[in-house]
Amino acid sequence: PTSATRDDEGVLQIAGVPATDLRDRFGTPLYVVDEDEVRGHARRTLAAFRSATARHGVQARVYYAGKAFLCAEVVRWVTDEGLAVDVCTGGELAVALAAGADPARLGFHGNNKSVAELENAVDVGIGSIVLDSWIELERLAAILERRSVDDVRTQTVLVRVNSGIHAETHEFLATAHEDQKFGFTLEDAPAVVARIRELPALVFAGLHCHIGSQIFGTAGFLESAARIVELHATLLDGGDIPVLNLGGGFGIAYTSADDPTPIEELASGIVDAVARECEVRGIPMPNLAFEPGRAIVGQAGVTLYEIGTTKPVEIGAGAQRLYVSVDGGMSDNARPALYGADFSARIASRVSEAAPALVRVVGKHCESGDIVVDAEYLPDDVVPGDLLAVPATGAYCFSLASNYNYVPRPPVVAVRAGSARIIVRGVSLDDLLAHDAGLDKTPAFRG
Ligand code: LLP
């Protein structure tokens, strides 16, 4: 987080809270999230898209993509700052609602929403459902028919289309090339929209597309916007389509090697491109919606670990690599194992004058791919007991966490103005053992 500084003893502080205090109060590993930074990114992102769209006389709505990191407090922070929320399962919807989010400002994604999930979304009055398949379209229409007793119950829907763009990112993070599971093709979309327009219960509000995640350049967004506006134009049919949702995917810096485009520049680049495409086609500019997740929470998070062992390993040609093991790993941050993602690390409990040594930070799991930071310089006097901070873990770390190897799940602590509080409790070993039915003491089981 930008609030990270060193105190007089050289201890890392986050929003004025020393890392050593956090360890003493909450233990390690620990997810720490800077509330003001999340709020700041939310405000800045909303302002960027609002001012970009205002120049063209239309509005912008920014949905926070909850999959990046969802819990009640985060829902409150982002909605408080004026964001809507995008959920993609019944579980995420339940969190957003329990936290008090206005259902009308929620969008519901997903390629396999169940009947129960759709019924619940309709019943709570969700703002929009993003349709992903023909089966879902008919499923939703049938639900609305069942719900339409005296009056026709209607539901606002968007249609997710796959713009066919190969986003320049990890293969697993790209979502709009042809051979993947999300959305309708550009070719099928007109028939889908035509079908929706036949059904009085479904209100077509616009198209949706999302090309992938952790994208740095603007080129993919601009190309995708051009294709989607072209489709949008063909669907107008003399009428109005109120919104165009262009998804999220805005990249952040994980290490000093990363140089993402500032959100203001991205926002005006994308919005101006849509405006140009509309002008060329002589059509009115729709309101725009966006769904950033990572860009709101990613850099606001930092994970604290305690170093447990260090070990020099011969790696051939007389060279050595120092392996530094921490007390978590792929259970609290699966991203290096899943995507080869890069992170950085710093000793948080002290500063050292020792020479930098190239190390590999690894976790405590039974896999050699359990890497936290593949290559990092740490002072060569690094010892067990040192605290290690890994920044930029606010997005897709807690949300992808597991209990692999029965490693307890860390709590999430929010820091603000010198104080810290738990916003998500950890999952303890006792919690895990309580799920093991083989430990039930009942005679029936033992029988
Ligand atoms: N909208 C839709 C429809 C999405 O599928 C996603 C992300 C987003 C918005 C938000 O994307 P963001 O702004 O956060 O990039 N676990 C991976 C990322 C998976 C993203 C899935 N969809 C990772 O750790 O990098």
Q: The biggest beta sheet, please?
A: 9 strands, mixed
> Number of DSSP strands?
21
CATH architecture of the largest domain: Alpha-Beta Barrel
Helix content: 25-40%
Query: What is the count of DSSP helices, taking H or I runs of 4+ residues?
Result: 13
The gross shape turns out to be globular
Radius of gyration using CA atoms only: 24 Å
Q: What is bound: which ligands?
A: ligand LLP
Strand fraction: 15-25%
Mean pLDDT score: 95
Alpha-beta content class? alpha/beta
Cofactor: pyridoxal 5'-phosphate
Family: Belongs to the Orn/Lys/Arg decarboxylase class-II family. LysA subfamily.
Domain Orn/DAP/Arg decarboxylase 2 N-terminal: 46-297
Pfam family, one: Orn_DAP_Arg_deC
